[in-house]
């Protein structure tokens, strides 16, 4: 990881790190929603076993970057290669790649009509074609792992936010993914419920799971991440070891952001409004403008 | 200009509350007078003879009411199933990314929502005459099922479409993120949730169909195919007495009132959350 902390602001040529397997390679990624360019040329490489935290102000494009990795958003240009498959290639079987990627959403997105266990088996049975018993066993293991043994039959509405998010993690883990994507997994939680979710993620990291985590939890990023990427305005401003990026940031934008996040009372008047305006332009792109929309339409049996 | 919250009212006479009370009293008195007048003026014997003649009640109950009730249920249930399947397909077409599917579904829905069900039923009744050799299976049931089902599908399509769109986008994203193809995500994740949302309005649709099945009388049914309305009407005409129609009407209530109650229960449950 030392090689990485040296390549702090170099975003055009990703750092090469010895013989380790490359899990994700992002090359000059651009993404626009209508006329708003949210990603303006992102390049980075993520290796097997690495935990990468992506931080930055709202509207900086962190979530969009993450969603481009499993093609929930279709990039406008650039290439994304996930575990050897170029997902930006139109011929790529995206469903197969996705079945090997765990995604955890800010709003959990658990399936409300089935219970916790079924949430964890539905993908295994319908996508991986595992036998029911095997899927069930796997699901129980993972629910136990996130501290929810005994809650298998609970429906999402009967669980707290923190519990729901942990079921969501178990659901993703049940697919035995080679990479976990976390999109602000604790942002929708009450403060007292954040800790449980973070400790599950910490445990995953310690087991060597490759993880990309978009987060506002600076303490978590500093403690768990092998590398921190700071994004602002659709570009990677600074990346490297958390002690450097969070502890000794070099770029002014990083310093300003961290000041704000770590001590929100020191925001100067007016700054918040400016930030809000920027956010408003970029954070809520016209709904449905994404080309991937068609793909997400729930349509069985009709040609696309 | 002393200000006091206990200042005496500026005007004399009854307070607003007393006036409201008096107004309510007047309304009760009017109602009571109307009922008394009705009781005194109406010829109860005559009314009883026209609407509830006991020998007619007996005749109605014994001459085939069961068959008619069963037929009404069969007509409406079959039409409901056709409407449900057709409505689901139309709703999915309406949401298709293929534009011609959207147009076809849109035209169908506007057409059959705008046409009287009676005209569609008449058309289907005449089809075998117009196309010689065409046979609609299970006649007359097939004809009624098709005609009413085709109209119901148009209404149900809009209901089901709204239900599908009420399922949050994040559900599809989560399903697709697990690697489910679009079709599997629809079948396993979106449609089950959508149908839960639309159960109350679809039950209302079923109630409407039960009543619309009375239109089948226009087909010139044989006695075995009589539904409640036709059955009650024939007996009423033959005897110049309304009792059979009243009984037929009550039979509709026997079907629809439990359904109405069910809808209320379902809606209450939906409000409480699952």
Order of helices and strands of chain A: HEEEHEEHEHHHEHEHEEHHHH
Count of beta strands of chain B: 0
Number of DSSP-assigned strands of chain A? 10
User: From N to C, what is the helix and strand string of chain B?
Assistant: HHHHHHHHHHH
Give the CATH level 1 class of the domain at 70-225 in chain B: Mainly Alpha
pLDDT < 50 runs, ≥5 residues of chain A: 1-17, 282-304
**What's the Cα radius of gyration of chain B?**
27 Å
Give the distance, in angstroms, between the N- and C-terminal Cα atoms of chain A. 44 Å
Indicate the CATH topology of the domain at 70-225 in chain B.
MetI-like fold
Approximate shape of chain A:
globular
The CATH superfamily title of the domain at 70-225 in chain B = MetI-like
Molecular structure report:
The complex is a heterodimer of chains A (304) and B (274). With 304 residues, chain A is α/β, with parallel strands linked by helices. Chain A has 12 helices and 10 strands. Chain A has helices spanning 2-6, 62-69, 94-98, 116-126, 132-145, 161-173, 191-206, 218-224, 242-247, 252-262, 271-283, 293-296; strands at residues 22-33, 36-47, 51-55, 77-82, 85-86, 101-104, 179-183, 211-214, 227-232, 235-240. In chain A, the strands form 2 sheets. Chain A has a 6-stranded mixed beta sheet, with helices on both faces. A 4-stranded antiparallel beta sheet of chain A has the order 2-1-4-5, with helices on one face. In chain A, strand 1 and strand 2 form a beta hairpin. In chain A, helix 5 crosses helix 6 (161-173). The longest helix of chain A has 16 residues, at 191-206. Chain A is globular. By secondary structure, chain B is an all-alpha fold. Chain B has a domain at 70-225: MetI-like (MetI-like fold), CATH 1.10.3720.10. Chain B is 77% helix and 0% strand. Chain B has helices at residues 16-41, 44-51, 54-62, 65-94, 99-114, 117-130, 141-166, 169-177, 182-212, 228-239, 243-272. The termini of chain B are far apart. Chain A binds chain B through residues 70, 72, 95-101, 103, 105, 107, 109-113, 122-123, 126-128, 155, 157, 168, 171-172, 175, 294-304, and chain B through 92-93, 95-98, 101, 164, 167-193, 196, 273-274.
């Amino acid at each position: 990881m030392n090689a990485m902390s040296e390549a702090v602001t170099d975003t055009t040529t990703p750092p090469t790190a010895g013989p380790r397997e490359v899990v994700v390679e992002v090359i000059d990624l651009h993404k626009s929603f209508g006329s708003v360019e949210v990603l303006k040329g992102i390049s980075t490489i993520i290796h097997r076993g690495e935990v990468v935290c992506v931080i930055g102000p709202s509207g900086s494009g962190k979530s969009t970057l993450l969603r481009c990795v499993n093609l929930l958003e279709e990039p406008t240009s650039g290439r994304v290669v996930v575990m050897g498959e170029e997902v930006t290639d139109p011929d790529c079987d995206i469903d197969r790649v996705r079945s090997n990627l765990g995604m955890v959403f800010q709003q959990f997105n658990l399936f409300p009509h089935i219970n916790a266990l079924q949430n964890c088996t539905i993908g295994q049975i319908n996508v991986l074609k595992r036998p029911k018993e095997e899927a069930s066993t796997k699901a129980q293991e993972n629910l136990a792992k996130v501290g929810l043994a005994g809650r298998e039959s609970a429906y999402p509405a009967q669980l707290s936010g923190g519990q729901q998010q942990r079921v969501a993690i178990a659901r993703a883990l049940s697919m035995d993914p080679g990479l976990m994507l976390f999109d602000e997994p604790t942002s929708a939680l009450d403060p007292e419920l954040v800790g449980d979710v973070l400790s599950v993620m910490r445990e995953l990291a310690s087991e060597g799971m490759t993880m990309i985590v978009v987060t506002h939890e600076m303490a978590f990023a500093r403690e768990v991440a092998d590398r921190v990427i700071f994004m602002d305005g659709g570009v990677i401003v600074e990346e490297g070891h958390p002690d450097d990026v969070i502890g000794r940031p070099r770029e002014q934008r990083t310093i300003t952001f961290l000041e704000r996040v770590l001590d929100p009372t020191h925001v100067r008047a007016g700054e918040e409004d400016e930030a809000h305006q920027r956010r408003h332009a970029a954070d809520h792109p016209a709904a449905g403008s994404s080309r991937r929309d068609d793909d997400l339409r729930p349509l069985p049996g009709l040609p696309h | 200009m002393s200000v006091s919250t206990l200042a005496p009212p500026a005007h004399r006479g009854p307070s607003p509350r007393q006036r409201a009370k008096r107004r309510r009293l007047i309304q009760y008195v009017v109602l009571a007078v109307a009922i008394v007048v009705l009781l005194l003026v109406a010829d109860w014997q005559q009314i009883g003879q026209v609407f509830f003649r006991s020998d007619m009640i007996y005749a109605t109950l014994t001459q085939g009411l069961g068959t008619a009730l069963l037929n009404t249920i069969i007509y409406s249930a079959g039409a409901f199933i056709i409407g449900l399947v057709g409505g689901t397909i139309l709703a999915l077409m309406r949401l298709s990314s293929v534009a011609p599917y959207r147009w076809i579904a849109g035209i169908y829905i506007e057409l059959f929502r705008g046409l009287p069900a009676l005209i569609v039923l008449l058309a289907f009744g005449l089809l075998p005459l117009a196309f010689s050799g065409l046979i609609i299976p299970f006649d007359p049931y097939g004809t009624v099922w098709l005609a009413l089902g085709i109209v119901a599908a148009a209404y149900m399509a809009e209901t089901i479409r709204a239900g599908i769109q009420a399922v949050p986008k994040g559900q599809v994203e989560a399903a697709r993120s697990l690697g489910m193809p679009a079709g599997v995500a629809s079948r396993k994740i979106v449609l089950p949730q959508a149908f839960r949302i639309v159960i109350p309005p679809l039950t209302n649709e079923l109630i409407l169909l039960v009543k619309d099945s009375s239109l089948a009388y226009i087909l010139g049914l044989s006695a075995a195919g009589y539904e409640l309305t036709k059955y009650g009407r024939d007996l009423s005409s033959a005897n110049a007495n309304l009792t059979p129609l009243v009984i037929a009407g009550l039979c509709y209530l026997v079907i629809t009132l439990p359904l109405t109650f069910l809808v209320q229960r379902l809606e209450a449950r939906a409000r409480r959350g699952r």
